[in-house]
């Protein structure tokens, strides 16, 4: 549906706001709010209704609603004083008051056949500076599916639902993307009509009792394949493995899209970076886990926040880099870095209280204060907001290991490893698994996991100290000594105090065993 008022067009099928024919860049949540108000223009809409529709009933502040209303007004060149289009009924709600005419959108065939006009080009240019966007197409079915024919639509439907949980990714609604049935090979048409940066397509092949699902992520700008995978199963077990396929695809996209965004950003001149490009390039440097790259990442996140002050994830990125500075002692003033980690996490949540990354960084900020119990509610909230958030599960496992809950720790860290087997924090996940065995006094298992942790990309000197402890407790003094020498070569003044500052074990027996082992190897 297209809604016309004044010189404005609100196109709900294409998720586009146009003024005088030119596309206006608008946040998806603000667009959804504006659409809701326009669709209900014949009546007053209460704040509770808005929260139920836009935030799915989650608990948010009045200021969050007011912020989105303000953004909607700004997009329409309205304001709180004149209230020309959106009127506030104080203490009750809001009403859209402009005269509106409507027009049905083009059919699916017309959309597919449509060529890029000036509006398309303008919108494509606007979309290029926004967050990554994706269309998930209905999968193509090959073979005799019988009563399992619905799987070709069910899988992409589930993927759209789960991808919509990712706050950094704009996902085209099912009602629009499913109009492109059979268009998996015509990426240009998808890009022209929907102006998305990525397209996910798939094929479901059924032969007798066997089924194969092929999934492909394509960059619509250069038509390159960013990632692909193939899954196999028995037709009779399709619904049992459906969740497994969706989880595997979601977690691969969470890794592959940011990597591709960083690659694209590196191809741009620094002066041409937009906020999202700066953010993703910042992530690329942040996950290298060294002081120089951490400084570069901090600078890029700061730039993104200046360019878009309401960009919640830029502040979460800043919280992460200041956490690194405090945790790994990059900063001269560790206390100040810890305060900045918490402040920037708070800024992220002020702009978007339901962003999982923001809740994750807030939880980790509590670590720096030594408040492990205080970190858990934030990490649990991050997992609730995004059940597939591997780093949040790992972080919960970290806190639980230090609190002595080894069994719960293992459950969470194993879930994190299953969700993200190539995660940038893999060394930490292995290290936490080692901690759980140290707590349980299972020295051989602890030594095995600690060795894997210390050998993983990104592992720092504190991780090598975990290997010293685990091998020392397991009686392998040669390996413990080797890792002790490596850790001291990287950070000459390392002490047991540094270790316990980073890993404040609550259980006195565990703390004593570790302390004696570190002392034995010169810490």
Structure description:
By secondary structure, this protein is an alpha+beta fold. It has 23 helices and 14 strands. It has helices at residues 28-39, 47-54, 62-75, 108-113, 118-127, 151-163, 174-177, 187-194, 238-266, 275-286, 291-307, 312-327, 334-351, 356-368, 372-385, 390-403, 406-419, 426-439, 443-455, 461-473, 477-490, 496-502, 508-520; strands at residues 2-5, 8-11, 16-19, 22-24, 45-46, 86-89, 93-96, 101-103, 133-136, 140-142, 170-171, 198-207, 210-219, 225-234. The strands form three sheets. Strands 9, 10, 11, 12, 13 and 14 form a six-stranded mixed sheet that branches. 45% of the residues are buried. Residues 105-129 have low confidence and may be disordered.
| Helical stretch tally | 23
Anisotropy-based shape: globular
Total beta strands = 14
What is the mean pLDDT? 84
Query: Over the alpha carbons, how many angstroms does the gyration radius reach?
Result: 26 Å
Task: Let me know the largest β-sheet.
Answer: 6 strands, mixed
The rounded distance between the terminal residues' Cα atoms is 69 Å
Helical/strand content category: alpha+beta
> Fraction of residues in helices?
55-70%
Assess the beta-strand content as a share of residues. Answer: 5-15%
Q: Unreliable runs, pLDDT <50, ≥5 residues?
A: 105-129
Brief description of this entry?
Strands 9, 10, 11, 12, 13 and 14 form a 6-stranded mixed sheet that branches. Strands 4-3-2-1-8 form a 5-stranded antiparallel sheet. It is 57% helix and 13% strand. It has helices at residues 28-39, 47-54, 62-75, 108-113, 118-127, 151-163, 174-177, 187-194, 238-266, 275-286, 291-307, 312-327, 334-351, 356-368, 372-385, 390-403, 406-419, 426-439, 443-455, 461-473, 477-490, 496-502, 508-520, and strands spanning 2-5, 8-11, 16-19, 22-24, 45-46, 86-89, 93-96, 101-103, 133-136, 140-142, 170-171, 198-207, 210-219, 225-234.
